Amino acid sequence: MATHEGTWAYRDRFHERFARTYFRPFGDLALSSIGVGTYLGDPTDEADSAYREAIVAALESGSNVLDTAINYRHQRSERVVGAAIDDSEIGRESVFLATKGGFLPFDGERPDDPGRYIYREFVEPGIVDREELAAGQHCMAPAFIDDQLDRSLDNLGVDRVDLYYVHNPETQLQARSRADVYDLIEATFERLERRAEAGDIGAYGVATWDAFRVGPSDGSSLSLPEVIDRAERAAGAVGHESSHFEAIQLPFNAYMADAFTAAVHDGRSALEVASEHNLHVFTSASLMQGKLAREMPDRVEAELAGKTRAQRAINFARSAPAVTSALVGMGSTEHVEENLAAGTDEPIGANAFDAIFE
Q1: pLDDT at residue 132 in the model
Q2: What is the per-residue DSSP string for 1-41?
Q3: Strand pairing category for 96-101 and 245-251
Q4: Taking every annotated instance into account, which residue ranges of this chain make up the domain NADP-dependent oxidoreductase (predicted)?
């Protein structure tokens, strides 16, 4: 697991390569403000090899935040992350490792008959009840999350993950009422509180796409204040004074800035609520799957430091309030070198960031 001693030793080793605020606190840990995402890429041995090399390069160049999910590239991403940690000269105690559960994963490749695969692997053995499924591919039942966390630990080859996300809980709104989804979130959080107590996870959170960026009238909306309240109730149910709910992940970039601009949580944005409750924010889609490396609004780009447009886009995400780390896909060592170079520049200050949206 990531430790205070390990992550601060890592910070001390690399901090002179980067600008002053490149490393940021997560509790008593020191985390790089640029992290490695592992969502994109084909489920092939060739992509596995490139990812493995890139992750090792990132760890050995100043990025100690690795983000994955059991369904990414049909479990291949988790397995490659685990292998890369083993390959690297950087010890596990210096690496902040996050993964996610919620989508039913395939195993290595997409099966010819996905429905049959899900029935055989999950429904028939009793891991998932049909009534718990949403969109034919998502489950958030506590027992299922338990199973997925265990599988993730096996895939990664570790005995603990530092942050475990419930993955896109808004998917459940396709199958049940918002009130029922909140109840399900609370029940799952209670299970994760117990897994934290057992030492299997350091903290937990929610990774979303739409949920915290859209208004209450939208069918994908969830209230971040309500989710925070459910975490506190879950902690109380197991006898914890405070919850282990410590982070959210959501898209944030120059084209998708709703987490900062949309006051959809009782007049506050998701980033405002996160800041008020001392939640850490990890941004996904920081480069908008490469689009921002090609184009960016002029008024935004003019405020940002960075030799390349990709670096300027990364620094935009790193500049937002409450953001601990901007996650960026790095499928090659060339990507690692360019992306981490963004950390040699300071992100823009709060006033300049606010001015972009005036």
Answers
A1: 97
A2: ---HHHHHHHHHHHGGGS-TTSEEEETTEEEESEEEE---S
A3: unpaired
A4: 34-343
Neighbouring CB atoms inside 10 A of 162's CB total 25
Band (205; pLDDT cuts 50, 70, 90): very high
Cα within 13 Å of Cα(65), Cβ side: 26
Which two three-digit tokens encode residue 62?
Answer: 């100043």
**pTM for the whole structure:** 0.97
Closest CA to 156 of 106, 232, 228, 86: 86
pLDDT at 350: 80
* Separation CA 76–CA 105 (nearest Å): 10
- pLDDT tens digit string along 294-329? 998 888 888 899 999 999 999 999 999 999 999 999
Measure CA 260 to chain center: 17
Reading the block at residue 36, the tokens are 């490695």
Condensed to tens digits (0 to 9), the pLDDT of residues 106-129 reads: 999 999 999 999 999 999 999 999
- Amino acid of residue 140: M
Q: Choose which CATH entry (3.20.20.100, 3.40.630.30, 3.40.50.300, 3.30.540.10) describes domain 4-356.
A: 3.20.20.100
Work out the angle at residue 253's Cα, subtended by the Cα atoms of residues 250 and 255, and round it to the nearest 5 degrees.
Answer: 115
